[in-house]
Design a protein that fits this description.
Strand order of the largest sheet: 3-4-11-10-7-9-8
Shape: elongated
Number of strands: 11
Order of helices and strands: EEHHHHHHHEEEEHEHHHEEHHEHEH
Helix content: 40-55%
Number of helices: 15
Largest sheet: 7 strands, mixed
Length: 628
C-alpha cells in the first residue's frame, strides 16, 4: 500500500513502487438448466479496475444468466483482493530476504527512521511516554518535594508559561471559528439572493454541506494541534521536574544537607513586595462574610463558614497579574499547588443537568476553563467524562435490574423507601483510588491520584465551542444517551484550576430546584449530603457549594424564595455536620456558601444574619477581673 505523508515538513515523501502486473486465471463454476459450467478468464493482478464493470462485461460476453451477477461479482472482488495481497507480500519477502533493503546507511533505512521519528514526536500512541522516576520514587512524591523547595517559583512560572501557550492556541481556535462562521454566513446570504436566477435549491444544499465539511475540518485540525501541544508540554514538564529533583538531590547529598522545605525568607519578601505593584485595573470588592461556629454538646468541634457572592467558575479560572511588566499567576495558585498531594484538599460542588453526553450551560463553560491550560497530573476532562459515561451506563443498568427485582419481591408494598445513598457513589471511590502513595496525609486512599495515560481521545469540546455546532469527528458522542437521576453525582480531579482540586458534579432537576416546595428529603438535598460525606471521607478541608442550589438568578427567585431556600440549605448542612461528628475532629473544616452574582446587598445581609441563628456561633468571653 502507498503511504501518504501527513506533512511534508515532518515526514518525508516516499512513493512505494507498484510491482509489475501479471495475469492470473479466474475460475467461476455455476449451473444453468441442470448443466455445470466453468468460466475461465485472465485477470490482471494487481487489479485496478471496477469489479462490477468487469462482472457486467463477462456476463454480456459469455451470455451468463442475470441471477449470477451478485455471486460472480463477489467472487471476482475476493479473487482480485487476495491475489493482489499475495503479490505484494511475495515481492516484500523477496526484498527482505535479499538483504539490500535495510542495509546500514541505505536510503530506505534513513527514510524509515525519519518516519519513525516523525510519528514518535507528533503522535502520542507512538511515543514513549514513560513516567520519569528516580530510584523508584513516584512522580507525585517528586512533585511534592519539589513544590515545597526553593524551586517553587520556577515551577509555577513554568506552568504559567505553558498555560499561556495553550491559551494562545485556544484563542486562535476561537478566532478561526468566528471568521469561518462569518464567511459562511456571507456566502449563504449571497447564494440565497441568487436563488431563481443563477442558483437553485440544490445549489444551496450543496453549499451548506460544503460549509459543514469545512467546519469539521477546522475543528479537527485545531483539536489535533491543541492535543499535540498539551502532550508535548506534559512530556517536557515531567522531564524538567525529574531532572530538577535529581540535581537538587545530588547537591543535597554532596553537601550533607537536605532539600529546603520552604522558599527562602528573602524570596518570600521579594514576592510580597513585587505583588504590591499590580498593574491590573481595580475591581469591585466582592460581597463576603466569614463566621466561626462550634458544634457538639460535650465534645465541641470548630468550623469556619463563609458566605461569598460570585460566579462558581471564578474559583476555577486563572487570573493573571502584571508584576513589574511581567505577566504572572496570582498567589492563589501557590496554595493550590502546594496542597495538591496533601490531606487538605479543596472541592467545588457544581449543579448540572443529568445528561452526561451533552455539554451545555455550566458544563460547557467548565470544560472551556479546563481546556485553557494543561493538566500535568490527572487525565484530561474529556477522558474523565468518558470514564464517567461508561460507569454510569453500568450503574443505570444495575439500578434497572434492582428495581425490577424489588418490584417482584414487594408487589404488595405501598411505600417506597427514599434513597439514602447516591447510586453512583462508587464512581467517586474509583476516581479517588490511590495508585501513587502521597508523601503526606493520613491514608493513601484519601489523596488524588497521579495517573498517566498515553492516548486520550480528541477533545469533546473546544474553547468557546457550542455543542449544538459540534461535528461527529471533533466531538464524538456516544450513540445512547446517558442520564443521571437527581441526586447522583460524579467527581473529576484537576491540577490546573485556580483554587479547586476536586469538582463534584451534582445532577439536579431544574424544575424541582426552582420550585418553592423543595424539602430536605428531596433527592437533590440527599445528593448534597452525599457530596459532603464524600468530602469528609477523602480529607477535603475546604468545600464550596451553591447556597441557593442554582448558579444564576432566575425570575422565579424572589426575596422570600431566596430566604426560604437558604434556610433549608443551612439546616441541611448543620444536620449533616451533627450526624457526622467525627468530621473535623483533628482539624477545622471550611464550608463556603456561594450565592449568585447580581443579588442586592440587602439580601446578602439577610443571609449573613440568618446563618448565626441557624448555627451556634463562637462568642468571645471576657475573663479579666474587674477592678474594684
Amino acid at each position: 500500500n502507498k503511504i501518504a505523508p501527513f506533512s511534508s515538513r515532518v515526514f518525508p515523501s516516499w512513493s512505494y513502487k507498484t510491482p509489475c502486473t501479471m495475469d492470473q486465471e479466474f475460475r467461476y463454476q455455476y449451473r444453468s438448466n441442470g448443466t455445470a459450467y466453468c468460466l475461465r478468464v485472465p485477470v490482471k493482478i494487481p487489479f485496478k479496475g471496477d469489479a462490477r464493470e468487469l462482472t457486467l462485461r463477462l456476463m454480456q460476453a459469455h451470455n451468463l444468466p442475470c441471477y449470477l451477477e451478485d455471486d460472480l461479482g463477489s467472487q471476482l472482488r475476493r479473487f482480485a483482493r487476495e491475489n493482489t495481497q499475495k503479490m505484494v507480500d511475495s515481492r516484500a519477502e523477496e526484498k527482505l530476504h535479499g538483504g539490500s533493503l535495510f542495509e546500514k546507511g541505505s536510503e530506505t533505512e534513513r527514510t524509515i527512521q525519519q518516519w519513525v521519528d516523525g510519528f514518535s514526536e507528533n503522535y502520542v500512541c507512538f511515543s514513549n511516554l514513560k513516567e520519569p522516576t528516580d530510584d523508584g520514587i513516584a512522580f507525585s512524591e517528586i512533585y511534592h518535594k519539589l513544590i515545597h523547595s526553593s524551586s517553587l517559583s520556577t515551577l509555577l512560572q513554568l506552568e504559567h508559561t505553558y498555560a499561556m501557550a495553550v491559551s494562545e492556541v485556544c484563542k486562535g481556535w476561537k478566532n478561526a471559528r468566528a471568521m469561518m462562521q462569518e464567511k459562511h454566513d456571507s456566502e449563504l446570504a449571497a447564494a440565497i439572493k441568487e436563488v431563481g436566477t443563477t442558483k437553485s435549491e440544490s445549489d444551496i444544499g450543496l453549499l451548506t454541506r460544503q460549509h459543514t465539511h469545512d467546519i469539521e475540518a477546522c475543528e479537527e485540525r485545531w483539536s489535533h494541534e491543541l492535543n499535540q501541544l498539551q502532550e508535548s508540554q506534559k512530556k517536557g514538564y515531567r522531564e524538567w521536574v525529574t531532572k530538577s529533583y535529581q540535581e537538587m538531590s545530588s547537591l543535597s547529598s554532596k553537601g550533607g544537607g537536605h532539600l529546603a522545605s520552604v522558599p527562602t525568607r528573602r524570596s518570600l519578601q521579594d514576592s510580597e513586595r513585587d505583588y504590591e505593584d499590580f498593574s491590573t485595573p481595580s475591581e469591585a470588592q466582592p460581597l463576603e462574610e466569614s463566621f466561626t461556629i462550634h458544634l457538639g454538646a460535650q465534645k465541641k468541634t470548630m468550623h469556619n463558614l463563609r458566605i461569598l457572592c460570585g460566579n462558581a467558575l471564578d474559583l476555577c479560572r486563572h487570573k493573571t497579574t502584571s508584576v513589574r511588566g511581567v505577566v504572572t499567576p496570582q498567589p492563589e495558585r501557590l496554595q493550590t499547588s502546594m496542597l495538591l498531594y496533601s490531606d487538605k484538599l479543596s472541592a467545588l460542588v457544581i449543579m448540572e443537568d443529568g445528561r452526561l453526553n451533552s455539554l451545555r450551560g455550566i458544563k460547557e463553560a467548565f470544560a472551556g476553563v479546563c481546556h485553557q491550560s494543561t493538566d500535568f497530573h490527572f487525565p484530561d476532562i474529556a477522558v474523565q467524562l468518558r470514564r464517567v459515561q461508561e460507569f454510569a451506563q453500568l450503574a443505570n443498568q444495575e439500578k434497572k435490574e434492582q428495581k425490577f427485582t424489588s418490584s417482584l419481591s414487594s408487589q404488595s408494598s405501598e411505600t417506597v423507601p427514599i434513597r439514602s445513598e447516591s447510586p453512583i457513589n462508587d464512581l467517586e471511590r474509583s476516581l479517588t483510588a490511590s495508585t501513587d502513595a502521597p508523601p503526606t496525609g493520613p491514608a493513601p486512599s484519601s489523596q488524588p491520584v497521579s495517573q498517566d495515560y498515553l492516548s486520550p481521545p480528541p477533545l469533546t469540546h473546544g474553547p468557546g465551542y457550542s455543542s449544538s455546532n459540534s461535528s461527529g469527528r471533533s466531538s464524538p458522542q456516544p450513540e445512547t444517551s446517558v442520564h443521571l437521576e437527581p441526586g447522583d453525582f460524579y467527581i473529576t480531579r484537576h491540577s490546573n484550576l485556580s483554587q479547586v482540586h476536586i469538582v463534584m458534579h451534582l445532577a439536579t432537576d431544574p424544575a424541582a430546584v426552582l420550585s418553592p416546595a423543595l424539602r430536605a428529603r428531596h433527592p437533590v438535598m440527599v445528593g448534597l449530603k452525599n457530596c459532603l460525606r464524600a468530602a469528609a471521607r477523602h480529607d477535603v478541608h475546604h468545600i464550596t457549594l451553591p447556597l441557593l442550589l442554582v448558579h444564576d438568578m432566575q425570575p422565579e427567585m424572589t426575596i422570600t424564595w431566596c430566604l426560604k431556600r437558604s434556610e433549608l440549605v443551612f439546616k441541611c448542612i448543620k444536620g449533616f455536620m451533627l450526624e457526622n461528628s467525627s468530621w473535623g475532629e483533628a482539624d477545622s473544616r471550611t464550608i463556603q456558601f456561594l450565592v449568585p452574582s447580581g443579588i442586592s446587598s440587602e439580601l446578602f445581609e439577610e443571609f449573613c444574619e440568618m446563618l448565626p441563628r441557624v448555627f451556634r456561633m463562637a462568642t468571645t468571653k471576657n475573663i479579666t477581673s474587674s477592678k474594684r
